[in-house]
Structures are given as structure tokens and as C-alpha cells.
Write a structure and sequence with these properties.
The chain has 81 residues and is mostly helical. 62% of the residues lie in helices and 0% in strands. The protein binds zinc ion. Zinc ion binds next to loops.
């Protein structure tokens, strides 16, 4: 188990930053490896954000569509009668 450079707490080998230290402090491993890991994490976060934005858009479109459909149905009922 490696130890944090900043606080000396025990950390996992696959952790990029130390949970005991504020962000960007408590780097684990060599600087190059940390940068690569951070890059990988950024890419994964970007992928997740893109996916999230896509599903939010799908959600907005489907909600708008159902509201329009409901509005049309509500409007049509008095006319149908
Ligand atoms: Zn630390």
C-alpha cells in the first residue's frame, strides 16, 4: 500500500489523489503517471458528460412531446364532444 506524499495517510495504488487531502494535493505515484491517470479520468468524465447531456436532451424532447400530446388530447376532447 502506498502512502500519501502530503499527509502520510495510507492510500490505494489506483487512487489518483488522496481522499484525506484537498484537491490536487496528495499526489500518489510519479507525476507522469498521475497526469496520465488524470487524463484518463478526464476522458471518462467527458464521455459520461456527453452521455448525460444526450439523455437529458432525449428526456427534454420526450417530455415536450408528451406535454404537446397531452395538450392536443385535452384540446380535442371538447371539440370531439
Ligand atoms: Zn493525503
Amino acid at each position: 500500500m502506498p502512502f500519501c506524499r502530503e499527509c502520510g495517510n495510507e492510500v490505494h495504488a489506483d487512487w489518483v489523489t488522496c481522499p484525506h487531502c484537498p484537491a490536487e494535493k496528495g499526489e500518489i505515484g510519479s507525476g507522469k503517471m498521475v497526469q496520465q491517470l488524470e487524463h484518463q479520468v478526464d476522458e471518462k468524465q467527458n464521455e459520461r458528460m456527453t452521455e448525460l447531456i444526450f439523455w437529458v436532451k432525449v428526456g427534454i424532447v420526450s417530455i415536450t412531446f408528451s406535454l404537446l400530446l397531452i395538450a392536443m388530447m385535452v384540446r380535442r376532447i371538447p371539440f370531439a364532444l
